[in-house]
Amino acid sequence: MSNKLEAYLEEISHFLSGRAEREEILSEIRSHILEKAAAEHGGTGDDAVDLAIAAYGAPRRVAERYAEDRPIIAPAYKRYLVRYTTLLFAIHAAFTVFAVIFKKDFVIFPFLYMPRLGPIEAAMYLPMAFLADLGLVAVVLYFVTQSGKDVKLPWPKIGVDLDEVKPPKKAFWGRVGTAVGAVVMLAVTDIALYIFTRYHTIFLYLTHGSNPKPLLTPEAGRYLSLIVIASLAVSTMALLVKLFTRSRWVDIVSNVISLGLIGLILRQPFDNLFAITVPEKLLPVVKANIKVVLLIIALIVTYELVRDIVRVSRSKLARSVAQY
């Protein structure tokens, strides 16, 4: 047997799954090549086999021809891939927010281990979590497909399906509202910048008509003021961009940046935060309220982020289905 034929078949095997199916396909390809060599080149010698291999095609292309009718995941389960991955990632993202805010690690045995994360670590962790969730769902659906059985999978209802509603059109008054919102946010951002350049902080308080005084210590005031101004600027830019495009990627990018900024706020130590005297009994209550407010904002932003990712995924899936 030609060594080149065996090497060719081995390379094809790298692109095929399932041991039994792989052996059956390779045996069929071997027979076709030998028949082709004998019919077109007068024998099954090395030279004739080499010519037949050259005419048969590149290994990956050959494997794709045989695998067309043997999908890794059945087309009927493609929507399940998007739905289940989105659901798992939403849970993962919510737990990540909790881990960042409460600065603790926790285990939901045997399903999930969530380490203690900072904002930067969380930003790097979430993409890996998404890939892990996607891989887990893909593996489950792969085994379901390969089993060949009629498995009825649950369909979690986490939102209105794409084919149940028509996407809303951007009406004229909707654009007017977006434009007004952009102007208001631009004005608020400008005012915040003016106050910051004058007082080096935007957190001020007034007493009996006196000049404004800083509410926070100088370092904390500058740090938190810059984060708040950056958040206002991101919201302003998102509204301005929405005047020209309906893409949900605008909201996704804006929410990702907002979550990062919230994480930066949470990195600020709450000890020695205030420049004014706060009663000791009241200080724990103030700290707890700040954390609760940030947690609620982070959960709302996370919900909107996952919702927009789901909608983008559905749109891409609908377009891919329409092509077929």
What does this structure look like?
The chain is mostly helical and 324 residues long. The protein folds into three domains: 3-67, no CATH class; 75-158, no CATH class; 172-323, no CATH class. The protein is 68% helix and 3% strand. It contains ten helices and four strands. The strands form two sheets. Strands 1-2 form a two-stranded antiparallel sheet. A two-stranded antiparallel ribbon has the order 3-4. The relative contact order is 0.08.
- Summed up, the helix count is 10
The major pleated sheet works out as: 2 strands, antiparallel
Number of strand segments: 4
Q: What share of the residues does DSSP label as strand, in percent?
A: under 5%
Trace the largest sheet across and list its strands. 1-2
Outline: elongated
Average pLDDT, all residues? 79
- Tell me the radius of gyration: 29 Å
User: Could you give the order of the helices and strands?
Assistant: HHHHHEEHHEEHHH
Quaternary state, please?
single chain
| Integer count of domains | 3
Spans of at least 5 consecutive residues whose pLDDT stays below 50 are 159-167
Q: How far apart, in Å, are the first and last alpha carbons?
A: 42 Å
Return the structural class: mainly alpha
Helix content: 55-70%
Please outline what is shown here:
With about 325 residues, the protein is mostly helical.
Fold topology:
Elements (H helix, E strand, L loop, with lengths): L2 H11 L5 H23 L4 H11 L2 H9 L10 H25 L3 E3 L3 E3 L4 H29 L24 H28 L4 E2 L7 E2 L3 H25 L6 H19 L15 H41 L1
Helix pairs in contact: 1-2, 1-3, 1-4, 2-3, 5-6, 5-10, 7-8, 8-9, 9-10
